[in-house]
User: Fold this.
Amino acid sequence: MRKAGAAGAIVQPQRRHLAATVVRLTGSFVVSLAVTFVGLTAVTFLISRLTKIDPVLAVVGDKATKAAYDNAYHALGLDQSPLVQYGIYLKRLLIGDFGMSVLTSRPVLTDLVRVFPATFELATIATVIGVLLGVPAGVLAAARKGRWQDHVIRVVGLFGYSVPVFWLGLVGLFVFYGKLGWVAGTGRLDVFYDDEVTLRTGVILIDSALDGNWEIFANAFSHLILPASILGYFSLAYVARMTRSFMIDQLGQEYVTAARVKGCSFWRAVWRHAFPNIMVPLITVIGLSYASLLEGAVLTETVFAWPGLGLYITRALFNSDMNAVLGGTVLVGSVFIAINQFSDLLYKLFDPRLRTR
Amino acid sequence: MLKALKYALAAGALLVLSPHAMAATPADTLVIAKQIDDIISLDPAEAYELSGIEVIANTYDRIMRFEPTDITKLVGGVAESVTVSDDGKTFTFKIRPSQKFASGDPITATDAAFSLQRVIKLEKTPVFLLSQLGWTKDNVDKLITAPDESTLKVTITANFAPTLVYALLGSVVGSVVDMKVVMAHEANGDMGNAWLKTKSAGSGAYVLKSWTPNDSVVLEANPAYRGGLAKLKRVFIRHVPEASAQRLALEKGDVDIAENLTPDQVTAIGSNKDVKVTTVPQALLYYIGLNLKTKELQDPRVRQALRHLVDYDGMAGSFLKGAEQVHQSFWASGFWASYDDNPYKFDPTKAKELLTAAGYPNGFSIDLDAPNFAPFANMAQSVQSTMAQGGIKVNIVPAEMKPLLTKYRARQHQMLMVYWGPDYMDPHTNADGFVTNTDNSDGAAGHPLAWRNAWQDTTFTAAVAAAASERDEEKRKQDYIDLQKKVLDQGPYIIMFQSTSQRADRASVQGFVQGPSADVTYYNLTTK
Assistant:
């Protein structure tokens, strides 16, 4: 924060430069998005052709008559050639029409607008937890390499890596909800508050705060904190491990030794000299971890009855609900591209060498 | 920066640690934890998923119905009486006077006729329930009429006994929809189907307030319901996929009822005095289909041998305990005309004799397709190990349900394990499903179970039709029992179990009505 402001205040042209960068990035975002989604939809479409699931079954069930089956077959457009179907899909997509989901009986776009905020909320808090704890833990492990702090952090990280999330979720629920009663149970809100939030963004924490309804905010937080902590734990494990290895690399560099020789304290050398240099790779790591959480975490969403993107896409896949699968894939693709572009922008903020390019 | 972080962490800790408002559900709301992700439509002319049918049973009244106050008798619902013509083909229903839909519109014979015609014209999944009466898009306007506002006249062309016709009009497609409301939302000639998928327009005990896929269904009491205002004003059904999460929520008092507990969860509840478990036998059957396109399975003696190579009691007494009971014929125990003897026992010696007689003294290898989740996965393993004792080498092919059914419908399996639920409360539904096969060619239009297993017995098929049209109730009952015995002996099925539902309620919950199927599960008499 401070860095960007200072740079802007001193050199006026830099700001213009930044604006140009933003424009260029937006342009490249749109182009990447277009290319990616043509690729994504093509691949997804191809895969849907190769699966052994009959998409009509999802609509009519197992007991339908031939006429009912044929009706649905026709309504899904399956009597056209795959290429024509794909063309029609792309054409509709261009005008923002993702088609109808056969499983939810509503437009895919409406579904995505409903399920994505739930996942967004979960992934964001999880990432915040992962970063706030994972980065200091990684730095500490590197600074105390080979000593007990390092071992403890490694074991904690290893546990986070190797324990099935499903199990951890259930145990978490059992302990913190069932036994201790510190947090609320499954779902996003207590039944009491159903329908009391005006949905604007779909992110309940934001919406309840906008309403100034802190009771609902607290309830939503109480529902959110456990699944977010569990996802955050996995993110923490990954972030801490990567931070540690980046940091060990930097601490071995000559400039750190030089700083120490000049009388700089150890921790000052770590945080003021070495840390800024691991920012760029760290941003990549955090961005990737965040993006993978935004895809939706199916198992966590299942355990916590969290109506998010992961459950939505998985169920669509198992039932061959192609519009929903394609819509979800396009959304996930866009999220990945957006986070990549955003990381690029952050590189430029944190690495002065990249700014002048 | 560090200070701010400290404050933020402290605030977060406070929020988390502050005692969570002690869980209890709102006093006027029944909260149910249930797996409801099977719902894809709530239009009674289209819905054919168990959770959806359960919601519809509570939001619509039907022409005939099992009343919440007595779910053992099929009686008039929207209709108060019926007379049958001498030839048994024309049924004249008298509609109850001064009933109203939730919208306030009066319920008339026109609505009832429209509702039935709509099922035929929309031609969605459950259309087969009514089309078997001989109704088609072309004749339905003539065969179903409302000569006046209180008279519904329906004529069938099929040869069906009146009890069977009543059972069909008491199934989900007998739900009476509010014609005025539905047609006001018609788009592209869909008779309001797109709109009604996510709404309700009926006269049941409740009105659908919202359905959020994978999340919840919310119902509100309908003040116009002819059975009186529901005791609890609201029903909130929350989608909780995990059985253990359902149990936790129930034990904490965050829900009043948990509907999908597994045997291990029921055991875990143990002696908790705040919770009570109710066991209700269901009409769902678990079976293995034996495809006669597999050479070895064509000999009836081989099929009998395989039926002797399943450890029914072993499974029912261990991992299926409480969730399923042994039942071997095609119509579930506890229903009119069921055949409750279970003659097949696990007996490898007898199986080997039969296999030797059939020319397979050393057995053979065979594929068994099975769903890749509990309890099927465990059942498949048990079958694999017991069949091995008879020399049959079973290769389990696990799959998700949809690809499994796709394969089954294309009859590309050898053995396939799955379940079957009846479509309405009359044995004809299962007799027809398990036995009738009028065209065994690969290109046949219908795919009943007998066709899927490439089994065609014209005598049996004729016997099913004869039983359906038998007007002497006692004789009809005997017909079904005879059929069940014969299929048990010769059919291409190993029917193993009938499911039982284990529902757990908070101790204070009273009056929840759960019948043998989703069709007869009612919320309106529940108190807590």
Remarks:
- Chain A has two domains: 25-94, 114-354.
